[in-house]
Amino acid sequence: MTSLSARDITWTAGRAPILDGVDLDARPGEVLGLLGPNGAGKTSLLRILAGLRRPGRGRVLLDGTPIGQLRRREVARRLAIVEQSPEAHTDVSVHDVVSLGRTPHRGTFSALGAEDQAAVTDALAATGLTGWEDRLWSTLSGGEQQRAQLARALAQQPEVIVLDEPTNHLDVRYQLELLALLRGSGLTVVTALHDLNLAARFCDQLVVLQQGRVAAAGSPADVVTDALVRQVYAVEAVVDLSPHTGSPAVTFLGPAHRP
Ligand SMILES: Nc1ncnc2c1ncn2[C@@H]1O[C@H](COP(=O)(O)OP(=O)(O)OP(=O)(O)O)[C@@H](O)[C@H]1O
Question: For the domain 4-255, what is the CATH code?
Answer without folding.
Answer: 3.40.50.300
